[in-house]
Amino acid sequence: MDYRLSATAALLNASCLTALSGSARLYLAFLLAGLPPDCLACFAAGLVIYSTYTLDRVFASSEDKINRTDYAHARRDIGVAVTFVAFITGTALFCSRNIWVAPFIPFFIGYLYSKGIRIGNLRLRLKGSLGGKNLVIGLTWGGTIAMVIAGSDVSILSVLVVFLFFFGKLFINSVIYDMKDTLGDMSAGIRTLPVVLGENNTRLVLAGIFIFIHLLVALSMTFGLLSQEIVILTVSSLTTCLILVFYSSTLETSVSWLMRNLRISLIDCEAPVTVLIRFAITH
Q1: What is the mean pLDDT of the chain?
Q2: What is the pTM of this model?
Q3: H/E/C letters for each residue in the chain?
Q4: Could you give the CA distance from residue 109 to residue 227 in angstroms, rounded to a whole number?
Q5: pLDDT score of 267
């Protein structure tokens, strides 16, 4: 039926911007570390990210049925098949660059997050724990970026700063997405930070993380641990500051198209736009 085809298309398309953003983040990480970007590795990262997030959408949970209604009737078998192809292709490209571990860790953790594993009567599933999900997202993708960068000739301290920066950015972004899904999470009994702390207190916590990671990067540039990528630092500071100051879950139903898309514009589009701005300035 047509509605199943449109729902399947929505499912397959839902993670494309996230994947593009992930590819761009790895590109920016190469620049911060003072390395020439490996575009093939960035493309591979996008495929692995796409497969991980599409897998999460395929294994819809109770809160997802409230928060994600656009693809409720999607063909899950098609989603699994596309996920498998994207993951295998991304892994093969990583392996061609002698990067062996990076693609498997996020995919495995993504499975634990979405589906979980059952050992006897115990079910291990990462989705739903207070702040745990956000830590996992930050550690997984920040760690994956750091692993790829660490395979090059760069100091361990530089790798650590790159990891902390992207860990903090992804932690903040994932919590902002939790704000969007507060209604569904409350209905499903999911204890996210916005549900437990409220939006204002959550915003204060995120502001502290924001200040720390951007000061860390600025100091690292000053002392030569990172390359002098002022454009990356400036755009990151501005976009994160804007999202923390102006975003609210009420904007998701705003009559203004700009306000409804503020979250996507400032989070998912940040890294690709930063790449374009830097390219335009340096060329």
Answers
A1: 87
A2: 0.89
A3: CHHHHHHHHHHHHCCHHHHHHHHHHHHHHHHHCCCCCCHHHHHHHHHHHHHHHHHHHHCCCHHHHHHCCCCCCCCHHHHHHHHHHHHHHHHHHHHHCCCCCCCHHHHHHHHHHHCCEEECCEEECCCCCCCHHHHHHHHHHHHHHHHHHHCCCCCHHHHHHHHHHHHHHHHHHHHHHHHHCHHHHHHCCCCCHHHHHCHHHHHHHHHHHHHHHHHHHHHHHHCCCCCCCHHHHHHHHHHHHHHHHHCCHHHHHCCCHHHHCHHHHHHHCHHHHHHHHHHHHHC
A4: 31
A5: 95
Domains along the chain? Answer: 2-282 (1.10.600)
User: What confidence tens digit (pLDDT) does each residue in 119-150 have?
Assistant: 566 555 555 556 778 888 898 999 999 999 99
The amino acid sitting at 108 is F
| b (16+ CB within 10 A) / e for 141-176 | bbbbbbbbbbbeebeeebbebbbbbbbbbbbbbbbb
Tokens of 235: 């755009």
Quick: pLDDT tens for 48-66.
Answer: 999 988 887 887 644 445 5
pLDDT score of 38: 95
